[in-house]
């Protein structure tokens, strides 16, 4: 059928009610958001953002309500979608923005694709990767992998992807979202090494919408974390408290989940796999730790500073 592109949509969306089908690749995926409130009687108050792209650029796509439980787990980073009967809305200005792997990619920030059960009822089709044709001009998923030796030179809030061998994983902890609120964030600390430095990556992993992965991070697994943010304590000794934390678009993968993921083609990932082949499992096992209390960043040495 006749297709349109994201670039054409941006130019013509105000003058149309019905839009031609779209063919896009998913480049980023946010965590699932629950926005239910006691006074609002919505059956499935869920929402999820995806960044999708075609040959003309990248745009946000929003999955609403009951489409979330139906489609959220099937739509992965790298998935190619055919979208029919969708709506176009003005963008929500305060949403988080992932850092694209391809810095040259054009963004269309003013509008977003809205997928709903009705008004109009969206039709979503997943195109299997083996049926995707090169002439469609869909961009490949690109990453920004860094090694541990490169981390010390990166600025605060820099976005990156990492791969490492887990040597420590802490227990799940909770932090209040707001000071007196009832809601909590769930997170755990992990250390991962990649052979490029004596120091590990220190990772603050918040529970994303992947409970099956979050609960099974354990020592000796190969851990991939995407869209992580660098956190530096800029006040005291900056090098001692550098760590990485998850963002709204972070995805986490462990051994058993890597097959078929787009990052397996990345050079730094291949280099890491080569390094692991040179390591003896028994030697690494001796250095691994699990559970326990992990105070980080460490409190100051005396109470006056504290």
From TrEMBL:
Superkingdom field: Eukaryota
Q: Which Pfam families match?
A: RADX
Please give the start and end residues of each transmembrane region: none
Gene Ontology MF term list: single-stranded DNA binding
| Classification via PANTHER family | RPA-RELATED PROTEIN RADX
The molecule here is called: RADX protein
Species name: Nycticryphes semicollaris
């Amino acid at each position: 059928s006749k297709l349109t592109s994201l670039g054409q949509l941006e130019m013509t969306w105000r003058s149309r009610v019905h839009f031609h089908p779209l063919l896009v690749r998913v480049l980023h995926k946010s965590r699932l958001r629950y926005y239910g409130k006691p006074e609002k009687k919505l059956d499935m108050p869920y929402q999820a953002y995806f960044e999708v792209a075609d040959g003309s650029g990248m745009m946000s796509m929003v999955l609403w309500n009951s489409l979330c439980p139906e489609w959220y787990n099937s739509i992965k980073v790298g998935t190619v979608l055919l979208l029919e009967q969708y709506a176009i809305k003005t963008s929500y200005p305060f949403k988080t923005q992932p850092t694209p792997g391809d810095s040259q990619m054009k963004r269309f920030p003013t509008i977003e694709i809205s997928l709903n059960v009705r008004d109009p009822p969206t039709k979503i089709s997943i195109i299997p990767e083996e049926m995707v044709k090169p002439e469609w001009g869909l961009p490949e998923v690109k990453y920004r992998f860094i090694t541990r030796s490169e981390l010390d030179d990166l600025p605060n809030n820099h976005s990156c992807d990492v791969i490492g061998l887990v040597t420590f994983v802490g227990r799940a902890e909770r932090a209040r979202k707001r000071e007196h609120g009832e809601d909590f964030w769930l997170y755990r600390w992990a250390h991962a090494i990649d052979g490029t430095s004596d120091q590990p990556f220190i990772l603050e992993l918040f529970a994303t919408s992947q409970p099956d992965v979050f609960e099974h991070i354990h020592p000796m697994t190969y851990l991939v974390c995407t869209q992580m943010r660098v956190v530096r304590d800029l006040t005291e000794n900056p090098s001692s408290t550098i760590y990485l934390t998850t963002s709204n678009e972070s995805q986490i993968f462990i051994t058993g989940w890597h097959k078929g993921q787009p990052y397996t083609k990345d050079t730094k990932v291949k280099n890491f796999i080569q390094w692991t082949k040179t390591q003896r499992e028994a030697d690494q096992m001796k250095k691994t730790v699990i559970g326990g209390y992990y105070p980080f960043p460490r409190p100051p040495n005396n109470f006056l500073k504290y």
